[in-house]
Amino acid sequence: MARFDSLADTVGDTPLVGLPRLSPGPRVRLWAKLEDRNPTGSVKDRAARYIIDEAVKDGRLTDGATILEPTSGNTGIALAMAARQRGYHLVCVMPENTSEERRQLLAAFGAEVVDSPAAGGSNAAVAKARRMAAEHPDWVMLDQYSNPANARAHYETTGPEIWRDLPTVTHFVAGLGTTGTLMGTGRYLRERNPAIEIVAAEPRYGELVYGLRNIDEGFVPELYDESVLTRRFSVGSTDALTRTRELLHAEGLFAGLSSGAVTHAALAIAAEAVRRDREADIVILVADAGWKYLSTGAYTGDAEATAETLDGQLWA
Amino acid sequence: MSVQVRIPTILRQHTGGQKTVEGTGTTLDELFQDLDGRHNGLRARVVTDEGALHRFVNVYVNDEDVRFTGGLKTPVGDGDSVTILPAVAGG
């Protein structure tokens, strides 16, 4: 059935597609879960829907309310669509070193963007949004980093979809940001089969993004539970870019840069499985497509120069 | 036997501004003890008095988070690359 009552009802139930050319062999297979097929083009539509529904249900979010959210882009865009449909005002606090397309999309949906400094990356955006929330007690900060509805969206939708479509799944690999995708999907899959490995690919940026004054100003999302993960990889801009292009060239899959980072981790796991002569079905979560990164030169620019530019930007 | 260690900006006060330093050891714990001899105070910024990693510090051996590979007991060897980073948000 492909008929829906409204655009909001099209969230989730995304395709899981094989990647036969990137897979190392018939016994070690890679699969991509295409989250760009959500209404605003990213996995964040799932979390946004759950977070808003929950806030409406518990009475925090009332008609005409102003929503405040720190975001590097995708969550903001997903919330912006929902805000448009339901008549909320949205203020996004976004690091200034994010792609032009993300800003334009937010503006297109009618969201207000408040810049946070490039130095410190999303940490600075979270800190600024939490200060603004204290100054505007009537605004509603849904806080994707601490909101259990974020992880629950994946526990109730992403996880069951993967289990339904690929019961032989052995590994789930996704990007680590708010940690909601990995926590929710990971918990669900583990409950079905405790042997499934849950693997995080965390973006590693250039020095600017880590330019904190003090290590105690670091940030670990409240949702993060280390025990859900099996392994966690740090993937730099060059590796993420190389794999993003590999997805495009080998499979014709036009994915965003965080998916390149996830693919990098997945290929390391695939190579290990081959070495140990183990069968594996590795699911890669493709969080978004490449549209929002065209201006970075990620798909056509000189690889070395582009990787250098990306190093100072928040690409995941 | 030498391991290359990448130092984040905020910890370079302990390494005279050097971005990478080298050390020896067969585990991360030994490596940080070796480094502390030449880079006074570095170890205490990464490892707590109780011998665990500080909450807001992540350490990677060859790009893999050591909290999932044995923590400070994670083996290291010649040619390995260790990266220390402050924890940051995504999303």
From TrEMBL, chain A:
Identify the residues that bind pyridoxal 5'-phosphate.
74, 177-181, 258
Cofactor(s) recorded for this entry are: pyridoxal 5'-phosphate
Superkingdom of this entry's organism?
Bacteria
Q: Which SUPFAM superfamilies match?
A: Tryptophan synthase beta subunit-like PLP-dependent enzymes
Domain (Tryptophan synthase beta chain-like PALP): residue spans on this chain:
9-287
Question: What UniProt keywords apply to this chain's record, in alphabetical order?
Answer: Amino-acid biosynthesis, Cysteine biosynthesis, Pyridoxal phosphate, Transferase
Q: What is its EC number?
A: 2.5.1.113
Q: Which GO terms describe its molecular function?
A: cysteine synthase activity
User: Which sequence positions carry the modification called N6-(pyridoxal phosphate)lysine?
Assistant: 44
The protein's annotated catalytic reaction(s) are: [CysO sulfur-carrier protein]-C-terminal-Gly-aminoethanethioate + O-phospho-L-serine + H(+) = [CysO sulfur-carrier protein]-Gly-NH-CH2-C(O)-S-L-Cys + phosphate
User: Mind telling me which PROSITE patterns this protein's record contains?
Assistant: CYS_SYNTHASE
Q: Does the keyword Membrane apply?
A: no
Q: Name one GO biological process term.
A: cysteine biosynthetic process from serine
The metabolic or biological pathway listed in the UniProt record of this protein is:
Amino-acid biosynthesis
**Pfam families membership:** PALP (PF00291)
Note the InterPro entries from the entry. Answer: Cys_synth, Cys_Synth/Cystath_Beta-Synth, P-phosphate_BS, TrpB-like_PALP, TrpB-like_PALP_sf
Protein family according to the UniProt entry:
Belongs to the cysteine synthase/cystathionine beta-synthase family.
Subunit structure of this chain's protein: Homodimer.
Which NCBIfam families does this chain map to?
A: cysKM
Question: What is this protein's name?
Answer: O-phosphoserine sulfhydrylase
Which source organism does the UniProt entry give?
Stackebrandtia albiflava
From TrEMBL, chain B:
Q: Which domain of life is it from?
A: Bacteria
Instruction: Name the SUPFAM superfamilies for this protein.
Output: MoaD/ThiS
InterPro entries from the UniProt entry:
Beta-grasp_dom_sf, MoaD_arc-typ, Mopterin_synth/thiamin_S_b, Sulfur_Carrier/Prot_Modifier, ThiS/MoaD-like
The record's section on CDD domains has: Ubl_CysO_like
Pfam families, from UniProt? ThiS
Q: Report the PANTHER family cross-referenced here.
A: SULFUR CARRIER PROTEIN CYSO, SULFUR CARRIER PROTEIN SLR0821-RELATED
Write the protein's name. MoaD family protein
Naturally occurring in which organism (per UniProt): Stackebrandtia albiflava
